[in-house]
Task: structure prediction
Amino acid sequence: MKLFFLYILFSISLFGQNSEDNLLTLISKANSDIEKIDYFNSLTWNLRSNQPQKAIKYGNEAIALIKKIDKPELLAKTYNFIGVVYRNKGDFSNAIKFYNKALENSLKYKDSTQIAYSYNNLGGIFKIQGNSPLALDYMLKALKYFEATNNKSGIGFCTINIATLYRREGDFDAALKYLDKCLKVRREINYKHGISLALYQKALLLKQEGNYKEALKAYDDVLNLFKELKDIKGIAVTYEDRGEILIALKDYKNAKADLLTAGKLAEQVDDKQTKARTSYKLAYLAILDKNVKEAFNYIKKGKILVNELNVPSARLEELKYETQFYELLKDYKKSLELYKKYTALKDSIYSIANKEKVASIQAAYNKERTQALREQENANLRKELQIKQTQRFYGIIVFILVILLIIIILWKYRTTSKLAAQLEEAIVIKDKFMKILAHDLRNPINTTMGFLELLRTEHRKMNTEEREEIIDLANNSIKKNNLLLENLLEWNKHQNKDYQPQIKHWKISDVFNETVTIMQPLASAKKIALSYNYNSEFVCRCDKNMARTILRNLINNAIKFTNQGGNISISCEEEGSFIKVSVADNGVGVSEEFQANILKGTLKFSTKGTLNETGSGLGLLLCKEYTEINGGSIGFFSEVNVGSTFWFTLPKV
Result:
């Protein structure tokens, strides 16, 4: 028997862990907080019987997430789930607290489903506390909501609750009627755990009627269902009830084995009600075995648990078993005293007045169900359901159409659009490349050739100053051609998909010094003062050649758009995790119509400089692409006739 009990615990624990792990994996992969909340709620519900502490933990995580995303209308469901966990533990005070919070929240946000569950759950607590009229009133309120919206899951929960109430009141016909209704709807929705609970209630009916042999057979069937579902609490209460029947049949050995198994399983899920009842039944067996010390230990344990539960039905069972206990000890005075208390409490719980109230409430409900007024009362509920169903239907249709459209678009894109776009891009690049070669490179070369031809034919007629001027003009023209040619080669290299940048650590001086030295003559030819200020100890992470190309082009643009005698300053500073390099001039600035598109990254002819210098538009295109490749950003601010500052950043080491 011990090995069998260990096998049950191991298999149930393994099953619960797998289910928990699967849901935790889904939470880690969830696309939204709403999905995560649904999964936390599922964990709370799935672990409610076997691992109540974990269930409460996950419920609280759902509440925290709901509050974080400010969706209070979702709280009622989680409150109800946590309340069920506390109810299973026998902590009715906390159960009522969470059920009331769920009812208050669902009424506020007009959530008819959770209003119904809240009423049903509260009715279940009142039933346990022995207040049958109030319990039935709440349960029938819940049933109205569920029937109005044809919520079969909710109907199942309500009807089994009502059946349990009638069974305890001794009205077995009414109990059986509601149990049959519960089984019908639960079989329609294939709710296996709910079916097993309804069959368990039928077995209880057989036990209370004294039909022990049929009851044992029914309990065996239910036990197999609970084992299949890995429901520890269900297995525990079934073993407890079997033990009670076996005591009645005087099979004390097997009764004790079943009760010990029930107690261990109830201990695992902290089910105080089952633990208390099992303790009293084991005390009874200990007395029969003349083991008074063991019996008193069980009685003491049971009394502690009943005091923790603090509900009349548990106290009633305590008095019943203690009466039998002292009768077996032949302490008839004590037994009689306890029996009187038992009878008085039982009469108060299951009084004729109570039965009349229950019957009156049921009759009123039955009458109301047949009246047209009920249809009007529930019209809003039906309308709400119809709207939800319509929205769900159209939502599914729209979802399917969107998926089909996406599939078609992707297929079209993969087969035609991508190829066409690539071809169009290649044609645009080729045309632009040829225009640059034909226009921006050929014209400066022709100009240089003109200077050289003039110098060759007229140098004897020129004085020294005139010859030097022609030589300087030719030299500057060649340098501009060289810069354009370098940009063309750099850009062409970048178009090669196999090209890999050489990202290393460089002092900022390695980027600055050579570039400024190269650009100084161009600035001097235009009588522009070129100055720079930077910390030579700054270290950045970049492709050095790319960084030099960026800086060279920004300085060249500044020279191009600065008037003769102007100023250009280059500076460098730390900005967070980056080094920011700025090139500032007091030139003509960028007009507003060009500012929006100047860094768009497309090939276009540039505007002419202050001395009618031409360009290709490649410079800024390279600057933008190279800055992004190196993990930085680029930008500018400018004011017409005041000047411009272009800057770029490189990651700081």
Q: What stands out?
A: The longest helix spans residues 379-458.
